[in-house]
Amino acid sequence: MGTPQPAAVEIHDLWKRFGQQIAVAGVRLTLPAGAFVGLVGPNGAGKTTILSMTTGLLRPDHGTVLIHGADVWRDPAAAKAGIGVLPEGLRMFERLSGRELLQYNGRLRGMPTAEVDRRAGELLRVLDLDGAGGKLVADYSTGMRKKIGLAAALLHNPSVVFLDEPFEGVDPVSAQTIRGVLKRYAAAGSTVVFSSHVMELVEQLCDWVAVVNAGQIVAHGPLDEVRGDRSLHEAFLSLVGARDDGGAESLGWLGADRGGAQ
Amino acid sequence: MTTAATTAPRDPAADRQVAADRQVVRALVSLKLRLLRNGLRRSGGRAAAYVVGSVGGLLAAAGVAVGIAALHGHHGAKDAALVLATALTLAWAALPLFLFTSDESADPTRLTMLPLRPRPLLRGMLLAALVGPGPVVALLLLSGAAVAAASGAASAVVAVVAVPLTALTLVTLSRAVAVGNARLLSSRRGRDFAVFGGLLFAFLIQGANILFQSISHQARSGGGLDLSALAPWGDVLRWVPPVSALGAVRSAGEGSWAPAAAQLLETVALLVLLLRWWLACLVRLMVTADSSTLSAAPTVSTDSGRRTRWAARLLPPGRAGAAMQRHLRYAWREPRAKVAIFSGVGMTLVFCLLSAVQGWASVYVVLVGGLLLGLQMLNLFGMDGSAFWLIALTLNSPGDARAELRGRMLAAACYAVPFTAVLSVLAAALSGGWADLPEALGLTWALLGCGFGMGILLSVLVPYAMPAGGSPMQNAAPGQSGLVLGNMLGSMVGVLALTVPLGALAVTLHLAGGPTWVVLPAGLLYGAAVAALGIRIAARLLLRRLPEILGSVIER
What we know:
- The structure holds two protein chains of two kinds.
- By secondary structure, chain A is an alpha/beta fold.
- Chain A has a domain at 7-90 and 157-239: P-loop containing nucleotide triphosphate hydrolases (Rossmann fold, 3-Layer(aba) Sandwich).
- Chain A contains nine helices and ten strands.
- In chain A, a hairpin with a 2-residue loop joins β1 and β2.
- In chain A, α3 crosses α4 (113-126).
- Chain B has two domains: 2-197 and 227-287, no CATH class; 315-553, no CATH class.
- Chain B has helices spanning 2-7, 12-41, 44-70, 77-99, 118-130, 133-149, 153-180, 182-186, 188-222, 231-237, 244-253, 257-287, 306-314, 318-333, 335-357, 366-374, 380-384, 388-394, 398-431, 437-461, 481-512, 519-544, 546-553.
């Protein structure tokens, strides 16, 4: 990994089983501080489960997670205070307006009201949510939801932010805004960990990647080390063992002459 | 189906079309059956609940049907039959407001992507709608009503036509209402709006209940069943379709053939109109895009306004204030929270009204309010749903957990305490029991406090998921009804048991002729103490169980 950097997140031997299915099987990962980390993997690989256990939302069957040295499951208070989270598939308090949601968030984290108002105003402006600050989050589009979620995750200026699929279903304009904010945040020395299966995006944004497949880390390290001389896309497909024949031997009818079939 | 089959000329293209149409109809009916079966297969508890519910519903319907049929020959039975049919009609018209989202086969917007013609689609949906216990319940009740309304062979002949015709019209009415409101009901705002329809309907039922109670009360005290109050209703309703079909049964029995024919025709005309409207809605729905997200969402009151700043000063500082403010905002904006509160308040009011109507009004009726509103604290985190992650992520100390729970409790106390106070004064004014007012209020607030403490503890111990996006009337995700019921009944018994000491104090003071006003401060203190104890115990557990609670409240 080159120069030894202080670790932002250390994951030791993390396991999680749901019924018969082992979702996460012995994940070990050390994420360097100040890095822009991409967690990539196919659907169902366990990205969300890993992130949930890392952020204290899902209790692991086994293993430890340290965030800047604080054990998430032994000393949750210390660990949670320094992180921001944008989960996937979990809702927010959507019957609050965007601005109210940020204010509520800040108060839950014990921030002074005036400071919360100031930061909320700035975040809403930068994320182009200025006009929507008074509308209920329930009425937001997907892109707006992701943006207000990002604002909530960044409000208390955490040292590490975990984003689960922050670009999923987001239009290019909103995606560009989110990228801009994240780049600025990472440039100031904070750590960004985000999951995605859009390789081009990860390639553009991240300087460090971890590839997850079937509940395990199959590759990790600086971007250039993991992809080698290929594109990340190609490296990823070979790492997770994808076929690229498109089911050539079957589906003979697909796109064929439509005369006979109904 | 028959029109297509008989009018089709011998043309292979048309024949193919007819066959394809039949296939669509068959597919829609089997879709309904499969959705039903798969829904039941998801959990044994759900299947059991469905079977028990269906059998119970059928038995209840059969009981009512036999009851109304037994009125046959009684003076006013015919009017009662018409009123029953009217109630049934209203129920079927309101049904989509409750159940639309749960019956996917009734939602034409899910089928817009398929190349379907509206007419076979309509036939298929109508047939699919006839499958299930609902139409059987309607048939049973209508048959009972027809027996009550009939007199003589002519009536029987008309009834054989009228009952299935009315049942068909009811099913069509229900579906037409659903399709007419499909866009409305599939949007968030529409569902919020539908809650009010549902609540209104629930109160209408309670109104009918009160009417029924007062009639049977009269019957018990005055001897014999007096249904004469229904006569003016019957005179009007017999002409209103689809109830007019039962009116025709009655007219035929009285030998008035022309009115009977007219009444039957009225119902047929309604059926035809409803089908046409349904078809028109289907045609429109299949070609128009969902516009629910296009309309500009309104802005909620400006947050930095003077009003909110003034209100914020009333809130406790820190996390408790934030939790309280959010809870109160949700009480107004989230339909499920609104339903919970309004049904608690509404049930209390109905109970009071019932006591006044039946002449046993007393200041002690306010105790019901204390009991019902105390249960508002049940399953707090289930109401948050998956948004609970934010709470889980920010709860760092026992102090945080206590503040969170205290804030939520204060929010509920904010409306429950004034409501019970005003209600007790009203009840005292109505019943003249001013002397017992302090005692009743003290007991009520003790019940309230015990309910809060109990509810908060149970919220932490047995959280359960509430369905996401479904009908706001459903309060538990499928398969958890048993848990919910146990939770409700258990906490009611628990709350009553917890309040026993104070009840004993009140009874003792009564018997000894002591100052019963002591119960007011005692109740207030006792309730507050139990609530505080509940918060203290629950807070410690909450902190340890955060991921487990999150896991069990995520909507599936």
